[in-house]
Specification:
Layout lengths: L2 H17 L4 H17 L1 H12 L4 H19 L6 E6 L4 E7 L2 E6 L6 H12 L3 E6 L4 H18 L6 E3 L5 H10 L2 E4 L3 H8 L5 E3 L6 E4 L5 H13 L11 E5 L3 H10 L2 E4 L2 H11 L14 H8 L9 E4 L18 E7 L2 H14 L3 E7 L3 H10 L2 E6 L3 H4 L34 E7 L10 H4 L2
Parallel strand pairs: 3-4, 3-6, 4-5, 6-7, 8-13, 9-12, 10-11, 11-12, 13-14
Antiparallel strand pairs: 1-2, 2-15
Length: 452
């Protein structure tokens, strides 16, 4: 094993033994501190994230730093995570929570502040320690977070080594770390997720996003357009839960598109211009790193097209959808593809075809007031989350307005080659012992009753 990784893991294991000696109150004080530090330093950390990663939007990163720290701590502060956490006298069961050990967390440059924070909060909540393996384009961010945490940990008399960082990360070091720790959290591209599942350790990964946006007939198109634009443009489109498409009713298609245009969209249905954009955004069918997390103006300039000043998002209308069509894939920039449908079943089929091509298992954005239509989409689409009448990019990862677990790691189930089809929560980072007693007044039912 690499000497650096061996040293980090040994230090982390020693710190975990100290962490395990704390009661719930002291443990929660550390978890709260992890959130409050990011909340209080949201602006300078957002500035550093934009500068180092060279993508995203400063104001959106400030919002994200404050929003995630706020909601994750709120979800954790009243939860028991140490010792006996549940008793069911009727069932004769007692549940005892225990740590998993040392957590390895590979974190992305798209979320270089809140992902280390979230992972650390969930790990330490269950008295695990954590070692962060940041993307090389976010190593300064990871160390900035660490230095802020160390100042507070010193004040609290808690070992710094409960939160460690690979200061000069590489693929090789990250792979060694994942193999040496007890559990792996992998948030990032397909490569790091595959490495996590190949590490030989229990792993939680994520899948690619390609959120399909379905607009039902007769709803408030103005409100729907506002939510979907906000979802698409947040942090210049690098959020995996950002809405990728507009699937609108054919009879109201022009009305819907006019609403998007009135709120800052630039609509393109000229095949020649769409093809020119495709060459820039998807050269050889693969997303261009030069457009990821960049502004509309940057993308337009690269393609040699002119867009009005103040344009928030570019919308293209491809001739086809599904397999082999680049516009059916995830676009990690302020761009959307628009389609029309005659029946709701056709709308769902368009979304399905695009998801099977890329993004299976992630999320869908439904703008509808028809419960039957919403449930139909929920039954048919291979996604872990169906977000209804919300801003998907900022709410699929949990929000005060919904009951999804607040997180920065959105599991995509077996569709996305992930272990979980839900939002990662602290409960995924604890072992449980179950003490089973004989149930009161139990009796075995007769065979006739069992097989009736």
């Amino acid at each position: 094993m690499n000497q650096l990784i061996q040293s980090l893991v040994e230090r982390s294991r020693n710190a975990q033994q100290v962490l395990r000696s704390y009661d719930q109150e002291k443990t929660d004080a550390i978890v709260k501190m992890f959130a409050k530090v990011i909340f209080d330093n949201a602006e300078p950390l957002a500035k550093l994230a934009v500068e180092e990663s060279r993508m995203g939007v400063y104001e959106d990163k400030v919002t994200k730093n404050r929003g995630k720290s706020r909601i994750i701590w709120n979800a954790l502060k009243a939860k028991r995570s140490i010792g006996i956490i549940g008793t069911d006298e009727e069932a004769g069961l007692i549940e005892v929570a225990k740590p998993m050990g040392v957590i390895a967390a590979a974190t992305p440059c798209t979320n270089p502040i809140v992902t280390p924070m979230c992972n650390a909060m969930y790990a330490v909540k269950c008295q695990n320690t954590i070692i962060i393996a940041p993307h090389p384009r976010s190593k300064k961010c990871a160390m900035a977070v660490a230095e802020l945490y160390y100042k507070e940990l010193d004040r609290m008399g808690v070992p710094r080594d409960i939160f460690l960082v690979i200061e000069e990360p590489s693929i090789e070091l990250t792979n060694e770390l994942m193999a040496a720790c007890d559990v792996v959290l992998a948030t990032g591209g397909a490569g790091v997720v595959k490495s996590a599942y190949s590490s030989g350790k229990p792993s939680y990964g994520v899948g690619p996003g390609n959120v399909q946006g379905l607009i039902d007939e007769g709803i408030d198109y103005k409100a729907a357009a506002g939510r979907m634009i906000a979802s698409r443009i947040f942090d210049n489109g690098i959020i995996c839960s950002g809405t990728q498409t507009i699937i609108a009713p054919e009879k109201d298609y022009d009305t819907v598109i006019k609403e998007f245009v009135s709120q800052g969209a630039f609509y393109i249905d000229d095949k020649a211009v769409i093809d020119k954009l495709a060459e820039v955004v998807f050269p050889n069918g693969v997303i261009n790193k030069k457009v990821v997390g960049q502004s509309v103006k940057t993308i337009a300039d690269l393609a040699g097209i002119s867009v009005p000043q103040g344009t928030k998002v570019i919308i293209v209308k491809p001739e086809k959808h599904g397999a082999g069509v680049v516009w059916s894939k995830e676009k990690m920039c302020p761009m959307m593809a628009a389609y029309s449908y005659q029946t709701w079943e056709e709308a769902v089929q368009i979304a399905y075809d695009n998801l099977v091509y890329e993004g299976e298992g992630h999320s869908a954005d439904i703008q509808s007031n028809d419960k039957n239509h919403i449930e139909y989409a929920g039954l048919k689409l291979p996604v872990s989350r169906v977000v209804v009448n919300q801003t998907c990019s900022s709410m699929a990862g949990g929000a005060f307005a919904n009951s999804l677990n607040p997180t920065t790691t959105l599991g995509c189930g077996s569709w996305g080659n992930n272990a979980i089809s839900e939002n990662l929560f602290y409960t995924h980072l604890m072992n449980k012992s179950r003490i089973a007693f004989v149930k009161k007044d139990w009796k075995q039912p007769a065979d006739e009753e069992i097989f009736a």
